[in-house]
Design goal:
about 200 residues; alpha/beta; Maf protein; 6 helices; 6 strands; about 25% strand; dITP/XTP_pyrophosphatase; metal-binding; magnesium; XTP diphosphatase activity; nucleotide metabolism
Length: about 200
């Protein structure tokens, strides 16, 4: 039976992305799956702090192997904004159209449009915390394009491509995204430390 691993989120987009990467080597559980209805406040000032807050809450209260992540968009012309406030840049948490509109408005007069997505994962495995980070460089479009993905995907064009994340298939995005790269680090770690030799081969 696959080892259970809790992902400290109920964001279906994130769960789908991670599930596609991790396959059936682990049984991926969400907060809903373990009956966690608490609103885990992201009070950290860095992605690392927020990721750790999520994983530690689950481990301290449910004593399960788990991981939490925090990610966001860093725009050079805006001094790294929206950063850790990416999900609530325009005020309400998760209002993606409003967040995109605010970014485009603040970027109107900027010719420097370089940016990056960054993800930090905090994994608590057998009581020990481990961190994994992934980034992807790109530029901010002048307008939204595409209907896939979520968050700022419609305005982010990864370096070396001429389409946005929102115009890519999940497979394309998973081959290069910040979350995918952080996940690759975590999966490599789990592959080496899994207690089940069969899981080690399958991961």
């Amino acid at each position: 039976m696959p080892h259970q691993l809790v992902f400290a989120t109920n964001n279906r987009h994130k769960v789908d992305e991670v599930s596609a990467k991790i396959g059936d080597s682990f049984k991926l559980l969400t907060l809903d799956d373990i009956g966690c209805t608490a609103d885990i406040e992201e009070t950290g000032l860095t992605f690392r702090e927020n990721a750790s807050i999520k994983s530690r809450f689950i481990f301290d209260n449910y004593h399960l192997d788990c991981f939490g992540d925090d990610s966001g968009l860093e725009i050079d012309a805006l001094g790294g904004e929206p950063g850790v406030f990416s999900a609530r840049y325009a005020g309400a948490h998760g209002d993606h159209p409003a967040n995109i509109a605010k970014v485009l408005q603040k970027m109107e007069k900027h010719t420097l449009r370089t940016a990056r997505f960054r993800t930090v994962i905090s994994l608590i495995w057998e009581g020990e915390e481990h961190f994994f980070e992934g980034t992807v460089e790109g530029t901010i479009r002048h307008g939204a394009s595409g209907t896939g993905g979520f968050g700022y995907d419609p305005i982010f064009e990864p370096a070396g491509h001429h389409i946005t994340f929102a115009e890519m298939s999940m497979e394309q995005k998973n081959s290069m995204s910040h979350r995918a790269r952080a996940m690759d680090g975590m999966i490599a770690f789990l592959k080496e430390t899994s207690p089940n030799p069969l899981q080690r081969r399958r991961l």
